[in-house]
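hiii so um. not sure if this is the right channel but i have a protein structure encoded as tokens and i wanna go backwards to a sequence. like what aa goes where. can anyone help
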């Protein structure tokens, strides 16, 4: 995760806050993660689900940095534990997933994709991404959403928007 020198939080509207590290979005670089499902569509957004390994020390370090950043933001916004929606998802079997969305503009997905084997993959796009591929990824946290309201139990949530910027497929 980026070393955050100056965290800027700007309220964009009633429910959304822009998060910047100085002038730039907060970036998370994660080496060699598994993308078990390929490209998915979830609620009209394209997503890539990444599985992080508990046994990988680099993955553990990144997860700790994300958790620490989440704690700082929870303190800043005075969030109760049941209100926070973490970007880290742990399954019953112990697998840890991150589920970033792919930004889009006018039905075009905004992602930089490259392949280790450029010779045989030079025409492939994100739509050709196969299941169970390992890749290096760069994620970003550009926004925090806050839909907490008084006296409402089920929709009282706050959390980060997580996007994927770049992938390098092995």
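sure thing!! here u go:
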């Amino acid at each position: 995760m980026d070393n955050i020198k100056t965290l800027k939080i700007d309220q964009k509207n009633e429910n959304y806050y822009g998060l910047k590290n100085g002038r730039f979005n907060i970036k998370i670089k994660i080496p060699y993660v598994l993308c078990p499902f390929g490209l998915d569509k979830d609620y009209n957004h394209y997503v890539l689900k990444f599985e992080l390994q508990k046994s990988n020390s680099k993955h553990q370090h990144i997860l700790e940095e994300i958790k620490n950043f989440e704690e700082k933001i929870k303190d800043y916004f005075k969030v109760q534990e049941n209100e926070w929606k973490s970007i880290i998802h742990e399954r019953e079997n112990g697998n840890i997933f991150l589920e970033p969305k792919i930004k889009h503009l006018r039905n075009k997905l905004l992602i930089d994709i490259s392949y280790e084997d450029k010779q045989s993959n030079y025409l492939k796009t994100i739509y050709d991404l196969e299941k169970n591929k390992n890749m290096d990824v760069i994620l970003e946290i550009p926004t925090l959403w806050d839909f907490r309201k008084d006296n409402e139990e089920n929709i009282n949530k706050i959390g980060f928007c997580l996007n994927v910027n770049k992938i390098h497929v092995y």
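oh and The CA atoms of residues 21 and 103 lie 19 Å apart.
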